[in-house]
Amino acid sequence: xxxxxxxFPASNCDQDAIHAARLLGHSARYIWHKENSLxxxxxxIVPGGFSYGDYLRCGAIARFSPVMQAVKQFADNGGLVLxxxxxxxxxxxxxxxxxALVRNRDLQFHCEHIFLKPATTDSPFTNKIPxxxxxxxxIAHGEGCYFADEETLAKLKANNQILWQYCDATGNLTDxxxxxxxxxxxxxxxxxxxxxxxxxxxxxxxxxxxLASDDGKLIFESIxxxxxxxxxxxxx
Amino acid sequence: MKAKIIITPKxxxxxxxxxxxxxxxxxxxxxGVTGVHVGKYxxxxxxxxxxPAAAQRALNDAAHKFLSNPIIEDYKLEIE
Lengths: 236, 80
Description:
The structure holds two protein chains of two kinds.
Chain A lengths: L1 E6 L6 H10 L3 E6 L10 E4 L20 H10 L3 E5 L1 H8 L6 E3 L7 E9 L16 E7 L3 E3 L2 H9 L3 E6 L18 E5 L5 E4 L17 H19 L1
Chain B lengths: L1 E8 L6 H12 L12 E6 L6 H16 L5 E7 L1
Antiparallel strand pairs in B: 1-2, 1-3
């Protein structure tokens, strides 16, 4: 599978995303934010970092970069897009994902491992996560508090668009397990069509046992499985 | 000619910065403060001779699409 990893000025988790994709046996290349084409990408990763210095609002300027036109087109055609951390913020600002990310409720930057409960396995990003499996994944953010109005939250619940929630080691969605104050402990969501997703934690930093957890692999494996299913369906 | 835009967090969004500043004001002895909301102020310089009505329309558009995020913020625009 071909991964396209976007690079905005001050993205800094692009290399980790490329490394994770290649480690798992797939090809991956960088796409500079000024490019107008995603080439033959099968999946686009919008990586973490501090694009444009987080000026104005996180992701507010990156969302207008030329490459985002191609990403929107790719997403409209059903292509898979995954935003990680700042990438989630960019996709939310671009309106490709619902809601917004605001400053952590304790005003502190959180750099730590958290537990994630997949709220559903019915998505191209969670289909390979075994039922009941709690993922241990690192976070590193100061503005990861997920907000959406009541109407949007109701829609997310009704459409099963909440993909991951912060939980404790046994899977309980407690307030103490919530590092940033996100509503409903939401760590990640997908769009209505389920082909675009975003999450604040960094699965690309949890693909090797050396890095304390390789649970992040399950998210990438879900993407591969979804892409394989798609190409099998096309061939049929 | 200048455009002045004040951007404030929506009431529904938790404003920990506002709460922290409120706490500090109370600690410093300022009485009677019942709320603090921290927002943003943006000043945009416009070329002389710009049509104010056209500027109002264009900047409203910019404020809605870019300078503020309508999901979490409200804005007020003034041209002078």
